[in-house]
Amino acid sequence: MHIAITGAAGFLGQRLAQQLIQRGELRQQSITQLTLIDQVEAPSPSAGTITVVSRAVDITQPHALDEVLDQRPDVIYHLAAVVSSAAEADLELGMRVNFDATRSLLEGCRARGMYDTRFIMASSVAAYGGALPDVLDDMTALHPQNSYGAQKAMCELLINDYSRRGEIDGLVLRLPTIVIRPGRPNAAASSFASSILREPLNGEEAICPVPTTLEMFVMSPGKVVDALEHGAQVPREALAPFRAFMLPGITVSVAAMLEALRTAAGEQALALVKHAPDPRIEAIVASWPARFETAKASQLGFVGDDDFTQIIDSFMAEQHP
């Protein structure tokens, strides 16, 4: 089996690659090659019997992925994206990376008759927005209120239609906000949700730019990567009629997140969180819904976190094994 990952140098891509290799070796699965694709060369994990190829390419350029697609990967994880705040600040960049490159990738699959390739794209809670019910389900209409969400929503429709036509075997996983991300803050509007926990747990100050009453729909990195891996195993007949759905996150307020921080690390950690309202960040994040019914994901075997304490405990265990 040949698996390709775009956005492979990002934290999610790196973690997915490592897990595929580790579990592939342990289970003696038939993964023979892993192709890692990003604008910079992605780290190549030790892979034993699995061939790992890292390619530094700009996926927005014509024919950038021809050589990879000519090898007809069995699974493509499309994780490459310009994140929310950056896509809002630069419409042309967001369109090139988030939409145009996705369409080119789909067209490349179609031109090669790759109808059996499982094409898995990471979408986002940002695809929703506007006037919404208190609890959403997978068929709630998409009314994104920012360019990033609009670009993801357009890609969802394309992937579903290419799958309906038998051009690919597509699957779109709408990701909750991922908490706690490792590393440093990035340009995503939701980046604060990790930094207000990660930095204090490491003894550093962090800025909370939103009201503590704001609720978010979140999922841990480990459960997201488990879901991506599981997505390659779901039978195609189980995915129709619409191949995009929300993963099973949990609803939590910023206040509850901070309380979990205090419980885990004490008052001294909580005191490191400074509150500085940022209307731009709040406008984007507040447009994302926080309560979902995720029956389809559960029926298909996707599993979320038990509670927010588990998310913090998992992060701390990874940081201090």
UniProtKB/TrEMBL annotation:
Pfam families: Epimerase. Keywords: Carbohydrate metabolism, NADP. InterPro entries: DenD (IPR050005), Epimerase_deHydtase (IPR001509), NAD(P)-bd_dom_sf (IPR036291). It comes from the Bacteria. Residues 3-204 form the NAD-dependent epimerase/dehydratase domain. CDD domains: Gne_like_SDR_e. One of its GO terms (molecular function) is oxidoreductase activity. NCBIfam families: ErythonDh. This is Nucleoside-diphosphate-sugar epimerase.
